[in-house]
């Protein structure tokens, strides 16, 4: 069963990597957005969101993710989702997030995808 | 000083006309703004394109707010104090500060919010020309148009998001139905349904409570370990429940989230929760039916094997005994009991006749009969007294069976030349002997059923002589307790002993056939609940 939300983040080569755990709802989405904005203000334009430990997302959580995507689009940045549970991947797909974001199997794959651009 | 634009001169009209094209181009730029700040930045650029020497600061005030928020331009604090107040239903207001050569304009926007613009160094000489004011008014309207475009796009985006969410809800409902039906027997469909329900309705937490009449058997929380206390249980919640296998499953969701806080659940949320609860109900019922089907299949396979075992140890034919006519029958019931009979020639010329019935049915009963058959054959290879035989069989059957399994049996050793029969009844139905004078003798002497108690308890035997013309019948309770459609026993309605005394055909096989026919006539269409087994011996006159 899904745990309460928490996240960890690291900055690697000016690229923000956020790993979440638990329900991405209002609380979870806001926490991701806050973490993103802290780094976005410092010029970070690439973000990897590792959702390995998040199996449930609601539309409020997704609205925060869409806002992040809007912000990144304005500055030519990019977000890549990784380690997606199939159900979460389908949800994000239906909600149209992959029109603006990438998806990779793992964080390493995401880093490679950034490097190859 | 507040001023309203006056009638234009020809020169001013020409100047304004030249700005129209610039305005059209500016509108295209502003229409593509993604955010309010983006719009403000674009707008400042447009103004400065037309008035290159001017400084432009833009402010925004949401409906009902008292303070201006700076959107773009300038670093000098307090400039917003120059902005005039909109009076009553006025949609715009102007103020000109000749000292600082600045113009401040406020325009009410389409959603009742306001934009304020302070343009410095706009004055041409010491007075604000009509052209300046008309231009600025046109510009500020341009901002309003750009702002409307921004709102339309935002609304469109929200609409697309909302439509996608409805598609997601429908899709997830279908997926969840498929997934819960595919879950392993050990997993919990209510866990999955609770997660999906919370996600699709934007509930911040949820609970599944499984309760029987007087107690809560299980509670599942979402997210795991999230406490649900006090008011959260009473307000802003929805529930759906069903009853299955004497348990009531109640799904509850709490605190529907929105970006502006907790809001009430709507009718769609309730419908979704009920639909997901129904899917869990269907899944549990399907699992139950599937388990029943597997169990039935397992029992049928076991019965098939048990029947095979039983049929292999029931004799296909009985040995011919000089001066006697013998016949037997075993009709297994559908559920396979544990009846057995045999007639075994011994080395000393005697014959061992046996009939037995294992308590219980199915594979355990069939295996126990098989054990009895094997031990009996082994013990009878050497001379053995009937009571010793029973004692030994009691011991080995006790060891070979569970506490609730035992065998009732009747043994008889026949000396065919003298008609002497030594018999031992181990808890079985008494065998009937019909004497020459037409009277009935019951053979009851013996002891406890074989394997019932693992103790060296004594058995007794008795001896009779079967005279010429006399008959003996061994049978199991499948005959006496054969029930008709009213569940009345054959022996109660038509005592077997009476049938035995009144039916004396020449051939043993005929007696058996008549007996079976009589039983079938009695039971009619009622299903056979137990094995029907009998062994009949007639000493020829």
Structural features, described:
- The complex is a heterodimer of chains A (117) and B (541).
- Chain A has helices spanning 26-40, 59-74, 86-94, 107-115, and strands at residues 6-12, 15-21, 46-53, 78-82, 102-104.
- Chain A has a single domain (6-115), classed as STAS domain (Transcription Regulator spoIIAA, 2-Layer Sandwich).
- By secondary structure, chain A is of the alpha/beta class.
- Helices cover 42% and strands 26% of the residues of chain A.
- Chain A has a 5-stranded mixed sheet with strand order 1-2-3-4-5, sandwiched between helices.
- In chain A, helix 1 links the parallel strand 2 and strand 3.
- In chain A, helix 1 (26-40) runs parallel beside helix 2.
- With 541 residues, chain B is an alpha+beta fold.
- Chain B contains 12 helices and 21 strands.
- Chain B has helices spanning 10-31, 36-50, 130-182, 189-201, 230-234, 267-313, 362-379, 386-400, 477-480, 490-493, 496-502, 508-523, and strands spanning 55-61, 69-72, 92-97, 102-108, 114-120, 203-211, 216-222, 237-244, 247-258, 261-263, 324-331, 339-345, 351-358, 407-415, 420-426, 431-434, 440-443, 446-447, 462-465, 471-475, 532-539.
- In chain B, strands 12, 13, 14, 15, 18 and 19 form a 6-stranded mixed sheet that branches.
- The longest helix of chain B has 53 residues, at 130-182.
- Residues 1-6 of chain B have low confidence and may be disordered.
- The chains are: A alpha/beta (117), B alpha+beta (541).
- The interface between A and B is medium-sized, with 27 and 30 residues.
């Amino acid at each position: 069963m899904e745990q309460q939300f928490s996240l960890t983040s690291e900055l690697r080569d000016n690229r923000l990597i956020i790993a979440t755990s638990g329900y991405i709802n209002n609380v979870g989405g806001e926490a991701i957005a806050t973490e993103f904005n802290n780094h976005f203000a410092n010029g970070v334009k690439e973000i990897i969101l590792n959702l390995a430990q998040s199996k449930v997302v609601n539309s409020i959580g997704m609205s925060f993710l869409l806002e992040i995507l809007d912000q990144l689009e304005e500055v030519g940045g990019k977000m890549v989702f990784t380690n997606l549970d199939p159900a979460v991947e389908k949800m994000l797909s239906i909600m149209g997030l992959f029109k603006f974001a990438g998806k990779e199997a793992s964080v390493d794959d995401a880093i490679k995808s950034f490097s190859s651009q | 000083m507040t001023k309203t634009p006056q009638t234009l001169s020809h020169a001013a009209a020409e100047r304004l006309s030249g700005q129209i094209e610039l305005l059209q181009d500016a509108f295209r730029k502003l229409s593509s703004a993604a955010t309010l700040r983006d719009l403000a930045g674009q707008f400042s650029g447009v103004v400065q394109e037309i008035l290159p020497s001017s400084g432009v600061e833009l402010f925004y005030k949401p409906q009902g707010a008292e303070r201006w928020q700076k959107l773009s331009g300038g670093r000098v604090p307090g400039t917003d104090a120059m902005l005039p107040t909109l009076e009553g239903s006025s949609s715009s207001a102007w103020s000109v500060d000749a000292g600082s050569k600045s113009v401040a304009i406020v325009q009410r926007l389409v959603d009742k919010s306001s934009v304020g613009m302070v343009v410095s160094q706009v004055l041409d000489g010491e007075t604000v020309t009509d052209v300046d004011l008309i231009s600025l008014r046109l510009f500020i309207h341009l901002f309003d148009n750009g702002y409307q475009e921004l709102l339309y796009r935002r609304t469109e985006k929200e609409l697309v998001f909302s439509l996608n969410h409805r598609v997601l809800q429908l899709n997830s409902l279908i997926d969840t139905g498929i997934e819960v039906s595919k879950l392993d027997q050990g997993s919990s469909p209510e866990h999955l349904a609770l997660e999906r329900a919370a996600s699709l309705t934007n509930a911040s937490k949820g609970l599944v409570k499984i309760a029987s009449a007087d107690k809560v058997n299980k509670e599942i929380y979402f997210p795991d370990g999230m406490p649900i206390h006090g008011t959260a249980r009473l307000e802003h919640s929805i529930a759906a429940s069903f009853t299955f296998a004497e348990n009531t499953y109640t799904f509850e969701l709490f605190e529907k989230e929105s970006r502006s806080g907790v809001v009430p659940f709507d009718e769609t949320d309730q419908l979704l929760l009920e639909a997901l609860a129904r899917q869990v109900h269907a899944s549990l019922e399907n699992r139950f039916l599937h388990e029943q089907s597997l169990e039935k299949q397992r029992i049928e396979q076991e019965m098939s094997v048990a029947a095979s075992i039983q049929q292999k140890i029931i004799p296909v034919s009985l040995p011919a005994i000089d001066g006697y006519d013998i016949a037997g029958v075993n009709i297994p019931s559908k559920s396979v009991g544990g009846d057995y009979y045999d007639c075994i020639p011994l080395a000393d010329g005697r014959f061992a006749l046996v009939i037995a019935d294992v308590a219980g049915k199915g594979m355990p009963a069939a295996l126990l009969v098989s054990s009895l058959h094997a031990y009996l054959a082994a013990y009878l290879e050497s001379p053995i007294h009937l009571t010793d035989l029973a004692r030994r069989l009691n011991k080995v059957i006790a060891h070979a069976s569970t506490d609730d399994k035992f065998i009732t049996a009747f043994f008889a050793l026949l000396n065919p030349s003298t008609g002497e029969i030594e018999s031992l009844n181990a808890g079985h139905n008494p065998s009937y002997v019909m004497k020459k004078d037409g009277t009935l003798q019951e053979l009851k002497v013996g002891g406890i059923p074989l394997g019932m108690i693992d103790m060296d308890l004594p058995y007794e035997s008795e001896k009779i002589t079967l005279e010429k013309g006399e008959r003996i019948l061994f049978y199991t309770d499948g005959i006496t307790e054969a029930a008709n459609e009213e569940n009345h026993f054959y022996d109660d309605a038509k005592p077997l002993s009476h049938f035995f005394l009144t039916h004396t055909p020449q051939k043993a096989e005929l007696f058996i056939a008549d007996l079976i026919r009589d039983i079938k006539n009695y039971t009619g269409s009622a299903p056979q609940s137990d094995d029907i087994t009998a062994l009949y011996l007639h000493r020829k006159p």
